[in-house]
Design a protein that fits this description.
CATH class of one domain: Mainly Alpha
Largest sheet: 2 strands, antiparallel
Structural class: mainly alpha
CATH architecture of one domain: Up-down Bundle
Distance between the termini: 39 Å
Number of helices: 3
Strand content: under 5%
Number of strands: 2
Helix content: 55-70%
Strand order of the largest sheet: 1-2
Shape: globular
CATH topology of one domain: Methane Monooxygenase Hydroxylase, Chain G, domain 1
């Protein structure tokens, strides 16, 4: 099985839970804000995009799988409602920051 690879940070853990994804998304959003303030807009865009990808990964946990029997080995619980609201807020913040250019 191939390991996912991030060209900036090296190998990426293939499976992490929604809480770790949320923490990574927060981290990337904050880094994007810092890069933007420093004037490195290209790096800021990359960070906001990465944050969005992690948030998208949290949303996929909430969606039902299309075929019976798929995901039977899933051990990840669905995130609580307050996490879903934070995911939405973080996504809006990242999109607003990207739209500012």
């Amino acid at each position: 099985m191939a390991t996912a690879y991030d060209h900036e940070e090296g190998p990426v853990a293939p499976k992490i839970g929604w809480s770790e994804k949320l923490e990574q998304a927060r981290k990337y959003k904050q880094e994007g804000n810092e890069q933007y303030k420093a004037g490195d807009y290209k790096a800021a865009i990359r960070r906001y995009h990465k944050a969005h990808l992690y948030l998208k990964g949290i949303e996929s946990v909430q969606e039902p799988l299309p075929f019976p029997g798929m995901g039977e080995g899933r051990k990840e619980d669905k995130p609580p409602e307050e996490v879903k609201q934070e995911v939405t807020k973080l996504k809006v913040d990242c999109f607003n920051n990207l739209a500012g250019w």
